[in-house]
Amino acid sequence: STSIQLGAAPELINGRTFVPLNFFREVVQMNNAYLFEGQIVIN
What we know:
Elements: E1 11-13, E2 16-18, H1 22-26, E3 33-36, E4 39-42
Antiparallel strand pairs: 1-2, 3-4
């Protein structure tokens, strides 16, 4: 396995896991993740 720097640690809040947007770019390899009107949009 390879270590990936995300810039911030994932957080567990009220039973939900929050990860930095870099997670989708680096781990899931999705380049179309962005913030739009307060919501994260992943294409």
